[in-house]
Structure of Transposase Tc5 C-terminal domain-containing protein:
Amino acid sequence: MYFPQICGKTVVSHLAKNFGVDLATKKEVLLNQEEKKLADRLSLMIRMAATGELVMSDRHELVRNEDEDGGDEDWDFEEEEGVETKREISQKMLDEALAFYRSGKRKRNHRGEGIRSFESMKSRFRWFNNESVLKLMIKYERTGVFPAKRNIQLEKLANDLNKEVEDILNQGLQFSDFELRELALSINREKKYWEKFKCSESWLLKWKKRFRICGRRITEFVSTKTERDAKKTLELVETLRKDIETVFINNPGIEMWNCDQTGLVKESHSMRTLARKGSRKVKILVQSKSATTHSITLLPIIGCDGFQHEKLFVQLGEPKGRLPKSGCYTSSKMELAVGTSHIMSRETAGEFFKNVLFGGYIPPKLILLLDSWPIFKDHAYIRSFAPPTVDLHIFNIPPGATSLCQPADLSYNRQVKGIQKQLTTMVLFRNIDYRLSARDNLLKLACQIHWVLGAVRFQPFIAYGFFQGGFVKTRPPPFEGPKQYIFGPKSYDSCSCSAQGCTLCPKCEKSYCFNCFWVNLHRC
Ligand SMILES: [Zn+2]
Ligand SMILES: [Zn+2]
């Protein structure tokens, strides 16, 4: 995964080269009014991007390219060439074969109808070259429906997809290939066009070419704060980095942990408006309007060496501040606190310090990096829970600097939210009868995401947050981001239960369906 780390000078010298500017020349450059304005603006943008005050964010949307001459009219809507030979069997051929099959005198089925062996069929009809043709013929006899050709079915699917995409275009909604693929698969499931349709990458590519659809990435530049504030915050962050570096130098072998609250909430808004047709619409109403939806706060602990604490703290909000008598989902890897809301209080923070932060494995020397939440600034309160043997160094991130340097915010928590969002999309488009926002399901989701992110392969990813935040000097080895890995192309392979897969397990590297992985909580 790519996290932007920008060196202004590198960008400028690259631009100079790109524009053929000789930097050695001493000649004064004269700018007119408009050029000056543009140069000032660009220069400010580059400076702010380098310090992290300017955030670039990408949106994906689809556009139809009407100017392009003709989409690919030759495409036959087939998914993969040569994988399954196209059937060239006409209804007349099938009728003849069926008549011959039933005219068999030597063999009879249990209903007393004449049948013939596959060999006998094959020797009579050269095209009868496959056992599956026999099955097809029997099905044809039973249903009276001549089996449609695959490419005709896929053509219908392609056209349906185009119609739905037209709506999306008209609304200018965010849409990436991930959603496009889920949409195609969902239409196919609803209309039962072709059972084995996988919506391979090549099919999607050809579809886009045929219907002149292309993805467009829009980059937005957002300034995070006014220049003056930003400068002050940056100075504070620089001081923090230096202070922590000093502790590292004076305490060889010291570990560094970061804990940052994040939430799992009801599904995001954009997906809600997106799916608004037919059965999907009904589903959305149920998913979002119900009074029993919950939000929870998670407080994971991560370490600068890629460590993830085995226990996850979760705060659940319940109307009366306590769990219903029937209880709820529990796990030995989850410390659950209940309050009247999902927002942590001093008391529940105490439970976190006592039972999670200082309740399990604790290194003898530890730097604790926390944000400026008032309870996190009360170091005496935190220390009151720590074992006396621990050499504890607590640091707070200055207010407003979380997005600049908080390790969990830069990597971990974004992925937690991203995974939830992608799953919401999936539940919607695959018509999975599962309410992600129900209390127990939300708790299960939190535990499963925590289990996923604890995979060894994601350690460099967790460590990267500390590097990106400027607290660790060595860059972790390259890695694949959790979301990209678990929802990548391989995740669509069949699950061992034969249902369509949706998630690639980062530990056993096999693909699992929604039910096996997220409902029954796959472990390996
Ligand atoms: Zn596994
Ligand atoms: Zn399964």
The chain is about 45% helix and 15% strand. Confidence is low (pLDDT under 50) at residues 82-86, 267-292. The CA atoms of residues 448 and 521 lie 6 Å apart. Residues 249-416+440-477 form one domain.
